[in-house]
Design a protein that fits this description.
Layout lengths: L2 H20 L3 H16 L5 H10 L7 H15 L6 H14 L3
Helix pairs in contact: 2-4, 3-5, 4-5
Length: 101
């Protein structure tokens, strides 16, 4: 077979696997999107506001780890200054600790 066809097939399969891995938990993604929307409107949102969103989406402390990761990767799109992002993530992690086990 043509190596070009095999290479294209491998690339397509790799992209499909990557996309399916990223979309494993749509509930966590929905929660992260809502938190990012809050942070976009109010960059200095407090942990209790973020925790309220997580609780609304029925996230527990164990589930919130994936949400935290998704929020961290999405912060760049919110327009929050690069220097302020660590402070925002501290509030997100505090919110995680406010959740029930």
């Amino acid at each position: 077979m043509n190596p070009l066809i095999i290479g294209a097939a491998v690339i397509v399969i790799a992209i499909l696997i990557f996309n399916s891995a990223m979309n494993k938990n749509p509930a966590a993604q929905a929660c992260a999107q809502e938190i990012l929307a809050l942070l976009k409107q109010t960059p200095d949102a407090k942990a209790k506001d973020i925790a309220a969103i997580m609780a609304q989406h029925q996230r527990t402390r164990a589930d919130a780890g994936q949400v935290t990761t998704l929020v961290k990767t999405g912060l760049k799109k919110t327009g929050i200054n690069k220097n302020d992002r660590p402070d925002v993530m501290i509030e997100v992690r505090k919110a995680k600790m406010l959740l029930t086990e």
